[in-house]
Design goal:
The chain is 95% helix and 0% strand. It has 40 residues and is an all-alpha fold.
Length: 40
Amino acid sequence: MHSKHIGYLQKDAKEIEQKEQRTLSEKLGKKFKIFIDKEN
């Protein structure tokens, strides 16, 4: 029971991490796009 609970927490943490990485890369992508637009 206890190890199962830890497994769920790790799964949640991974999902949250992926979501955060996605939003982070989107933010960076937007900044990068603006940077490229300024260069042209």
